[in-house]
Design brief:
CBS-domain, 2 domains, three-stranded mixed beta sheet, about 50% helix, globular
Length: about 250
Amino acid sequence: MNSPMHALAGVMTEKFIAADPAAAARALETLATHEVLLLIGSLKAQVIVACLNPMDPAKAAAVLRRLPLRQASYVLARLDVPQASRLMKEFSAPYRERICAVLEPAFVKLLTQAGAYAPDSAGALMTTDVVSVRTDSKLLSLIERLKALPRKKLPVLCFVTSKDGELKGVIRTAELAFYAPQSVCGSVMSQTLSLRPQDGAETARQAFLKAELDALPVTDENNILLGSLDKYALPASADKKPFWRRLTD
């Protein structure tokens, strides 16, 4: 495939994925792995993530293995946790060791435990594609990062961590305009509740009510940031079902 045609195919594939990720994944599954790489290998990580999330785990793992290790680890760390866990099981032992060596230890531990999380738990429903900054970072650098994101990818919360990944606080994206750009993130952050991966939907609902936020951080037992749970990712509770449905259940 010559360069202009390759570029055109990439643009068309990107638009296909943006319009219908699941349909794009099904279509790409029918191609050879090297053909899939030609189409998506040069796309932005967030587009690759959207495509691999609904893809058959065996095929997605084959594609990921062919990406450069740094790119592959970045994409894997931003897949939905259940899908990332399935891909990890598809990797050969040598490749699994290689990619685990460049991933955060807390994330590797999360993937090994993911199979034990209930489908409605924070660990199964959370996203690991979060925006986090260090306590000593300037707000200006955070603002520049957010400007580079598509509008639909702007997070409700930005997380502030220590150099070891421990959650220290959060900054509401909507409140950034009220702070001086040269402010240090650690000086403007606020505290919030956090969830554990094993917390169920009802526990999460109560936490959302108490925190009065639309997203909450998910941390491990050492308060290491693992991801973020969106309130709207929770399944509907029984008392939210239509009246006629409750009568028939």
